[in-house]
Amino acid sequence: MTQELIAAIDLGSNSFRLQVGRIVNDQIYPLDGIKEAVRLAAGLSPDKYLDAAAQKRGLTALMRFNERLRGFSPESVRAVATNTLRVAKNAPAFLVQAEAALGVPIEVIAGREEARLIYVGVAHTLPDPHLQQLVVDIGGGSTEFIIGRSFEPIVLESLYMGCVSYSLQYFPNGRIDKRSIKEAEMAASREIQAISHAYREVGWEVAVGSSGSAKALVEILEQNGLTEQGITRDGLERLRNILLRAGSLDRVSLAGLRGDRLPVLLGGFAIMSAVFHEFGLERMVFSEGALRLGVLYDLLGRYHHHDLRDATVSAFVVRYGADRRHAAKVADTAAHLFTSLVPESANEESAAYQDLRFLRWAATLHEIGISVAHSSYHKHSAYILANADMPGFSRMDQGRLARVVLAHRGKLERVSALDPESADWLLIACLRLAVIVHRARDGRGIPPLELLRDGRNFIVAAHDGWLRQLPLTAAALDEEQRHWHSVGRSLVLRSEPGRILVA
Predict the structure, then answer these.
(1) Is the Cα torsion angle 210, 213, 214, 219 positive or negative in sign?
(2) Are the CB atoms for 312 and 396 separated by under 8 Å?
């Protein structure tokens, strides 16, 4: 029986959480967890800038997590950030500090990717996951809605409303009155109405709540005798009356209400009330599974080479009608060039191996934009990759794919702002050369080429006489040298040391 440790970090809008899990025969058993009530969304200004105090709270929490993660291998840890860092305009600058404090890369994930991971976590905790379930996860800055069966989501959506943002907007002074609750509920209802009809048509057998707001409401309702189990419509109404009688947060005294949940209780309550109303719910059960458990199971898949990103890339090839055979030829050649350039990328344990995987994905998808138009298809491909829902890929993953694909032909000035030391320059060089040598689409295999690096410059080594038979390719490579010169780099093709075939 094998036992390994993996860790997930959830940088939520209300709390930062670290979950350590133990893998035992392809199952994950939670081993340790740390929660820090950072309330990141509370530091988001009206013009979407994260203030210094919120940043400091976040960095302090991450430095604590860093201590717990010492000794973990990089591939056994995954950190994801959600809504507040999706919308904050100064998130990129904060993330640089955050990654330094945590010691591992942080992925900002899109709303639907967050929903998918939440569902994966919830599905692994349900007593009967084969029932069709509606999962509702009220976070600090967004709320995710998923209908799924077994371990597969059917529909996914993320709405821009959360317990922190609603508490600040509708209950800024902690005052509780009918008007404030009604306004918050109506605002949430307007958001939910955009999806409720479609969700009702799909249908569900059981409603499930996950994460902090649902857990807090379950504990309050059960411990104060307002429900026997879970969240019910009647229990929420009885809680509403108790809150209204209190009139203010500082006069609310309820069993099961923890101090760190008090500031965001009212926003979470209003959103949950709207959920019950718009979906016609009478009862909701609670699941301990949430985003961080979903991240652990997703990480387990990658750990054992069942990476959802591979499946997503294959699905996109079908969806956009890409030429699968040609894409495979380009991918094989690009990978050959990269491994000649970075030999350690052949080792699956190396960081360079992940760069190689990104190169293969980019090569496989570089022509999907032809489904929009052949003219400037690389721009269409890049737009799709940057903006489509791609399960398994973070926003930064998608941005990287889009950047490499955008640069695979034409002017390199489009990516001239890229860090000169970025590994993406290597991926771009390999993909551009692979596309050039396979332009004829004649089914030729990997060409007799190797790619070498001289500082920031590239040398392409070719076998004697190869290019003399391919004048079109030779002309394209001649043009390619001018493209690299335009961004302050050089690319030279040589048949043997000191002999330049294309000058």
Answers:
(1) positive
(2) no
Q: What is the pLDDT of residue 65?
A: 95
Same domain, 36 and 179: no
Grouping H, G, I as helix, E, B as strand and the rest as coil, residue 34 is strand
Quick one: which of 127, 123, 250 has its CA closest to 135? 123
pTM of the model: 0.74
Is residue 14 a contact partner of residue 162, using CB atoms and an 8 Å limit? yes
Instruction: Answer for the pair 58, 94: CB distance below 8 angstroms, yes or no.
Output: yes
Write the pLDDT tens digit of every residue in 456-471.
Answer: 888 888 776 777 777 7
Neighbours of 104 (CB within 10 A): 18
**How far is CA 166 from each of CA 248, 265, 266, 267, 382, rounded to the nearest angstrom?**
16, 10, 8, 5, 35
Q: Assess whether pLDDT exceeds 50 at residue 2.
A: no
Residues 131 and 105 in one domain: no
Closest to 153 measured CA to CA, from 346, 389, 407 = 389
Q: Residue 480: which CATH number?
A: 1.10.3210.10
What's the CA gap between 500 and 503, in Å, rounded? 6
- The answer to whether 377 touches 370, Cβ cutoff 8 Å, is yes
Look at the block and give the residue holding tokens 């419509």: 233
Which residue range(s) make up the domain with 27? 3-109+294-298
Closest CA to 200 of 279, 137, 294: 279
Residue 275 maps to which CATH number? 3.30.420.150
Q: How far is CA 149 from the centre of its chain?
A: 22
List 36's β-bridge partners, or say none: 16
Alpha-carbon distance of 4 to 302, in angstroms, equals 14
Residues 6+ apart with CB under 8 A from 163: 14, 138, 139, 140, 212, 213, 264, 265, 267, 268, 271
Asked, for residue 114, whether it belongs to a domain, the answer is: no
Q: HSE (CB half, 13 Å, CA atoms) of 406? A: 19
Q: What is the pLDDT of residues 379-421, one digit of tens each?
A: 999 999 998 878 778 778 888 999 999 999 988 888 888 888 8
DSSP string, 218-287: HHHHHHTTS-SSSEEHHHHHHHHHHHHHH-BGGG---TT--TTTGGGHHHHHHHHHHHHHHHT-SEEEEE
Clarify whether residues 375 and 228 are in a common domain: no
- Distances from the Cα of 435 to the Cαs of 118, 171, 313, 355, 427, in angstroms? 38, 57, 19, 18, 12
Residue 408: DSSP 8-state: T
> Is the four-CA dihedral 463, 468, 473, 479 of positive or negative sign?
positive
* Pick from 214, 231, 205, 212: nearest CA to 147: 205
Instruction: Decide which of 246, 266, 298 is a domain's last residue.
Output: 298
Domain count, the chain: 3
